[in-house]
């Protein structure tokens, strides 16, 4: 009965008259229950969706006057936005019964790659529509253009090319639109996008990040975007000069994000007339090794200036003299990371007295750190990593930075001298001190910093780690103590740490390998003196990278590796492993589709060519050399491994003929079969290995594999997973 009722228009029968006193309308309650039924695994807990009074259900709001549902909020959690595989069901057509809806939020659900339904454009009163992170697929329905009262539209995606829109003409009917987010939607063919956006006179916020846009007009005959405050067209490949461009005449802007747009040329002087600007993001462009314009100092409302990786160059003192120097001093974030500024730091803070973030890493800055930096009491982030700054940093300097969350002084000429019992007033979430001479003892002043998420103290001449280390940093997500000279054993309590990335390679650890922390994704323990057998269960189901090469590990490779469905990189070379490689043929083991690199060279492994590789179609790098493998090479080798770029089998006991199927490798650049027991003639199919004719280095896939082998790849410090703002 309820299904038939949903097909009847809401305004055609007295049976559908709203209940009195603002209580729930019966046919709308039925529609909501149909929606609940269609979302068989809803992101939002809908346990309250029972009983007669639907206006009190979670996520539902009704009009006090009519009882009609006017708001429906089924937004998932932030975690749901990232759980792309969690299928939630489909949107029931019953939703269209809610004709008085003004607010609809279905974001952070997974609608299983279905298309946006046409009926989504059938809500004449709708002001707010949020379908972001919901895994719709295909074309953006132009029917959305029927929502003439819409003021807020968010369709952004978790990744590019899931949704597309050939053009944006459907926007022409949305004259009330104030907020538009189409980030990660494929707009490659929307060549006239600026003019189609320009017909939205009330638009205040526009987000078109990573949409495949390629063109941007230098001028508009008449700009209607007089209310536009936020413009984000970052991560698009415009490949043109940064000026002239249509947006330089949009003087109402408070935020301008041009990050990674492949703009080039100097920043125009016209920016000085955009006095409303509060945030500028120009990172990742080629600004022609020029200084910022002198009239930057007119931008008295500027709070955030991000020029990282933009090839801005010149003397750091001159650059700071061109920053806004106004009575209010609103500047909070200055990021010049990986630019080309140089010279000694200026002696005066100028307009930077209220900074919360000062990021100057990877520049050619020289001399000591000036005193004014230690007086920035609001500072949350201080990143001077990779500069040529020198001098001594004492506790008298550091103790003034009471709000500090991120400290990056690594790869400099600085020395840190503090008393062993000093307790800092701040609570760091990330510290980067790699390359400083901190040893031989681990810095005891870090013991109180138990809120760490990132600890990077590689190559610091540390030889011992105190017992309290493993407890004090048990909540850290990234731990890098590589390239020190640390002795001792790994604790049995390692598994109770929260680390997702651990780099303990190139030290002098001894003893056996304990279980890994459960959340570990990347583990580097190579180049130590670890012995004994591998753990029967690594205890880390999310493991992606395991690097244990150049130790003294013995015994077999445990079959528990077969259960690691995310595994991409395995390097167990240079050990004393014996036995056969697990075949992983049990039904309970998932296919290892993510596996790219397997390096088992220089062990005592035996058996036939590993059968497990049949379920690893994305293998790029296989090195089984210097072992005792035997038997014929399988005929499936050239079919099941289409992306293989390196195959190294030297110094084994393989026999029989080299299969002609080996000539099917389209990506193979390196083939080493020397010192085996092959017989017969060389197959003529080897002439088909065209990738071997490459004359300039490795292919991308092979280059990435080799780069992993060279050492730990850790995350960039600044702004990564550290929400300090």
Short description:
By secondary structure, the protein is mostly beta strands.
List keywords for this structure.
single chain; 725 residues; mainly beta; Leucine-rich repeat, LRR (right-handed beta-alpha superhelix); 26-stranded mixed β-sheet; nine-stranded parallel β-sheet; 42 strands; globular
Notes on the structure:
It is built from nine helices and 42 strands. With about 725 residues, it is mainly β. Residues about 1-20 and about 710-725 have low confidence and may be disordered. The two termini are about 55 Å apart. Helix content is about 10%, strand content about 20%.
Topology:
Layout: H1 2-6, H2 26-38, E1 60-62, E2 69-73, H3 78-82, E3 103-105, E4 128-130, E5 138-139, E6 152-154, E7 163-164, E8 179-181, H4 193-197, E9 205-207, E10 230-232, E11 255-257, E12 279-281, E13 304-306, E14 313-315, H5 316-321, E15 333-335, E16 340-344, E17 357-359, E18 364-368, E19 381-383, E20 388-394, H6 395-398, E21 406-408, E22 413-417, E23 430-432, E24 454-456, H7 469-472, E25 478-480, E26 487-489, E27 501-503, E28 508-511, E29 522-524, E30 529-533, E31 545-547, E32 552-555, E33 569-571, E34 576-580, E35 597-599, E36 604-607, E37 621-623, E38 628-632, H8 637-640, E39 646-648, E40 653-657, E41 670-672, E42 677-679, H9 700-710
Parallel strand pairs: 2-3, 3-4, 4-6, 5-7, 6-8, 8-9, 9-10, 10-11, 11-12, 12-13, 13-15, 14-16, 15-17, 16-18, 17-19, 18-20, 19-21, 20-22, 21-23, 23-24, 24-25, 25-27, 26-28, 27-29, 28-30, 29-31, 30-32, 31-33, 32-34, 33-35, 34-36, 35-37, 36-38, 37-39, 38-40, 39-41, 40-42
Antiparallel strand pairs: 1-2
